[in-house]
Amino acid sequence: NQANLEVLFADGYELTHKKDLSQPGQFACEEMVEVVGPKGSTKMRVLGPVRPESQVEVSLADARGLGLAVPVRQSGDVEGTPAFKLVGPKGEVECQKGIIVAARHIHMSLEDAEKFGVKDKDVVSVKTEGLRGLTFHNVLVRASEKFALERHVDIEEGNAAGVKNGD
Predict the structure, then answer these.
(1) Are 82 and 32 in contact (CB under 8 A)?
(2) Burial class (CB in 10 A: 0-12, 13-18, 19+), 8
């Protein structure tokens, strides 16, 4: 959020666009922060635009490395999540909540949802093919006029399925 951004980087700070992400209006920033837990820390890239509430999404392996029992949740569902610290070049913020492992999900437009016969918040299975093909179960559908069709795969699951960026 803007308040945390200003503590971490400077008063009135604005994010620096690095590259567009797959979802319209979303972008990776030049800025990096350190996420600190009881057992360790990891550097992470900030994503924009600034959100109403700060949130960190980590993999299960990252969560273990931080020493945190992080729940698997839909993005934005941060109530009851563990506390952690964010460290930036100008300051640090003690966050009382906001760290999750993102639930498996697939973004799609409302038109795509209609085409596939699903709606927002449905749960589906997604099959990958190839040498290490597998089926992902419990994949949350995120349908909105703001979304473009894309299945988000975290690094651990992508590696297990032999999926690479751009597949």
Answers:
(1) no
(2) buried
pTM of structure: 0.85
pLDDT tens for 82-117 read 999 999 999 999 999 999 999 999 999 999 999 999
Cα separations in angstroms, 41 against 68, 69, 80: 11, 14, 21
Q: CA–CA separation, 10 vs 114, rounded Å?
A: 45
What's the start-to-end Cα distance of the chain, in Å?
Answer: 32
Distance, CA of 19 to CA of 27 (rounded, Å): 6
Closest residue by Cα to residue 53 from 16, 11, 98: 98
